[in-house]
Amino acid sequence: MSGGKLKILVCGAHPDDPETGCGGTMALYSEQGHEVVAVYLTRGEAGIAGKSHQEASEIRTREALKACEILGCRAIFVGQINGSCELNSDRYAEFQAIIERENPDVIFTHWPIDTHRDHRICSLLTYDAWLRSGKKAALYYYEVMTGSQTQNFHPTDYVDITEVREKKRAACLAHVSQGVESWYDRSHGRMEEFRGMECGCRFAEAFVRHVQSRQAVLPNYEKKGGRNEDNPMSYVDSPQPDDRGVRLG
Question: In sequence order, what DSSP letters do the residues of 127-179 get, joined into one string?
Fold first, then answer.
């Protein structure tokens, strides 16, 4: 995966999940000439009080497309229903077909330990598709509203998003129906600042690389404990498992 144009898939349960979880990384990839795709499991049908599923779907689809325009990516809508997501043989096959068609180099998805059922389902659908694809792509997990949603998340890798933080924020605020402006700074804003403190920059996004995943090229990659000054787009230097399958470092 070194050199050349990469295809990046960012899988999220609802409109605004890819943007809040790794919108900065998406923006950086796009600015560096790579193809970025936001895969939305649902259209957020149950996400606006007082609106029918159809009305909410139309509003949130427009918001997602606006966010993708800001980040420089395209959108795919899988077609499940917000709050009623399913995990069965047909849904596994449906999601696998999307992954096979897109043939990505890097996949990002929800961390599976999460209080929101749709987030967990999205994570497991992605993981299953990755397994059945032969683990060809690199697989990373992202966090959303850590503490209240994502749980037990211990990053292996960081991306410095300082230079695109305002672009990420604008993409998140495009989801007007979700009142993002009222909660962004005290949730994801604080997370970005904290992750930046952890890795030695101002603002960062954090990820967990699957231990059996190949290594990927991350934009503005930050080593755990300090910046990689040698290459702003370097290979991830995550610890490898020993012969017992236990991570070192």
Answer: HHHHHHTTS-SEEEEE-SSTTTSB-S---SEEEE-GGGHHHHHHHHHT-GGGT
